[in-house]
Amino acid sequence: MDINVPLILFLLVAGTGVVTLVDRVLWAGKRKAAIAKVQENFSELTEEQKEEDKKYQAAIATASAEPSYVEISKSFFPLLALVFVVRSFIIEPFQIPSESMVPTLEVGDFIAVNKFTYGIRLPILRTKVLDINDPERGDVMVFFPPNEKRYFIKRVIGLPGDKVRIQNNRLFINGVEVPREHVSDVIPTNPGEFCFSVGGVYKVMEETIDGKKHIMRNCSTPSSAGLAYSSVVPEGHYFMMGDNRDNSGDSRKFGMVPEERIVGKAFVIWMHWDKFLSIPSFSRAGSI
Question: At 243, phi and psi to the nearest 5?
């Protein structure tokens, strides 16, 4: 089961915030009144005597004591609220769970996603309240696919109105072939991969979309999705593909991504940590 971190964080902020507010408005006043009552009951004592009187000290401690849930809420609310605001509107961290974006992103990469570049959205509801920029071809974008609650990360290939066609692993946008140059060949080693099963090799290519270069790979033997595909991107939707073209569940499988399901733009790898018992590495840190 996928954990809905934004919802959990929102509930924590709301819960600790309500307790903090009620304490400030109601309970703190009652504690102050209780302390005043103790002061009145021990008014015959001097300040020096009060410091040494155990009954007075115990009464003051009881009157001023905050319930543990109030103390915890007041301590954690500012931090939780800050994290919630940063994650919801500015930057959110993600870990790459699959090989669909290899060689650009590897399993275990920790990335940062810009949450405001495509517009400000309300947390949880994902309703856009402020337009800023539209996605561009070549962007690496985090989103929710149609009928999915999990985050996906792929590259923007087609914009609204674009005609996307794939023929024998060659990509065409609006009838123009996307240029690419051969970089290297990689022999597949995972028996679960399509390219391994057909005895092919990965052709690593430098692809250029709208002047932006990135590395991707195709199997020398095209998969069914690489042999022939054609579609027109509807208005308000985007066509997404993984850079690991033959090992990616993307728009060729689940369809176009509606604008309202966009999360943000991935812009940097800040750490790599693929196994729990391994040592985190920063060797892959850098812009995406």
Answer: -70, -20
Cβ atoms within 10 A of the Cβ of 163, count? 14
**Catalytic residue (choose from 88, 100, 248, 251):** 100
Active site residue 100: yes
Model confidence pLDDT, tens digit, residues 215-267: 999 999 998 888 899 999 999 999 999 999 999 999 999 999 999 999 999 99
Which tokens sit at 129? 């309240």
Q: Which of 154, 248, 251, 265 is catalytic?
A: 154
Q: Using an 8 Å Cβ cutoff, are 104 and 248 in contact? A: no
How is the chain split into domains, by residue range? Answer: 5-88, 91-287
Do the beta carbons of residue 56 and residue 45 sit within 8 Å? yes
Which residues contact residue 172 at a Cβ distance below 8 angstroms, ignoring those fewer than 6 apart? 163, 164, 165, 166, 178
Query: DSSP label at 65?
Result: P
The CATH class of the 91-287 domain is mainly beta
Residues 6+ away with beta carbon under 8 Å from 8: none
Q: Is residue 163 flagged as an active site residue?
A: no
